[in-house]
Write a structure and sequence with these properties.
This protein is of the alpha/beta class. The chain is 30% helix and 26% strand.
Length: 287
């Protein structure tokens, strides 16, 4: 069983939730919050606890006025987890295990905030057995993450991400997308387009050993974990350098794509700490 994270992160959302339930984020439903939204006659909102004596005395139609406030509301949070074969890479840690740790941290933060979350795992299709409907019972998420952690599938691609948007709700939500993004850029763009009604946070999980473990000189048999295609290459210092350049170019291309959708990425290299997520929200999504 995956343990409840000892530390969590804090977050806020830069929009007003239209959820009717009580929560901790700014909302646009009138209720018992602290954000003043205006005055209306008592006949339109019969709550004598909210009477505004001063405005009532000044009302030219001699109507009793009451103050209206926006209630604080919850927001849905979705955790999308890439379970394709490239996430099986093990350097400092297996990338999928790191994604599981991050998902547990997100679940803990969301539960503490009084929001609701859902989990969606995918590789070459959305994995129905991983789906967790919206809720905030952390033990259920941790039990589900145990199943995800047991996945050791090889030869699996990431095309299932194209199915993910249909599993999201209609209300604007936070979407954490955990992946190494070793997939065609057009798939990333197509998915971001389909999720454009939501605030997407791409969490890019990379490991420096993907480059540092390459041979310095000599032949090596390279196997694509998602397609199973094998290719023999003769490595030289120039080829190693070129691979490093390709990774840098890939990061730049991803970042430009994410920024087009107002979704700057959080890059996780080797290990994760909740403070990284707190700093992300302070930098990019502060109110």
């Amino acid at each position: 069983m995956i343990a409840i994270p000892e530390t969590s992160f804090t977050y806020s959302i830069p929009w007003k939730s239209d959820n009717h339930h009580l929560g901790d984020h700014p909302g646009n439903q009138r209720g018992t919050g602290f954000e003043y939204r205006g005055n209306v006659p008592l006949v339109d909102y019969p709550d004598t606890r909210r009477m505004d004596i001063g405005r009532s005395l000044l009302d030219p139609f001699e109507q009793i006025q009451v103050r209206l406030f926006n209630q604080e509301s919850p927001t849905p949070v979705y955790i999308l987890c890439d379970m394709s074969s490239s996430m099986q890479f093990r350097g400092h840690a297996r990338k999928l295990d790191l994604a599981v740790d991050i998902a547990a941290s997100i679940g803990s933060a969301v539960a503490h905030a009084g929001d609701v979350y859902s989990f969606i795992g995918y590789h070459d299709k959305v994995l129905e057995e991983t789906l967790l409907p919206l809720g905030n019972r952390l033990p259920e998420l941790l039990a589900q993450l145990c199943l995800v952690s047991d996945c050791e599938d090889m030869g699996r691609g990431s095309e299932g991400v194209l199915e993910v948007p249909q599993y999201l709700g209609q209300k604007k939500s936070l979407v954490f997308w955990l992946s190494d993004f070793h997939m065609p850029l057009e798939h990333v763009e197509q998915t971001l387009t389909a999720m454009s009604a939501h605030q997407v946070i791409p969490v890019v999980i990379w490991d420096e050993h993907e480059i540092s473990r390459l041979p310095r000189l000599g032949y090596s048999n390279m196997i694509d974990p998602e397609t199973g295609v094998s290719r023999t290459l003769f490595f030289t210092s120039a080829l190693r350098q070129r691979v490093g350049e390709i990774y840098a170019e890939r990061r730049q291309a991803l970042q430009q794509l994410f920024l087009r959708f107002d979704s700057p990425a959080l890059y996780i290299a080797d290990e994760y700490h909740p403070d990284l997520m707190t700093h992300y929200f302070e930098q990019y999504l502060s109110l």
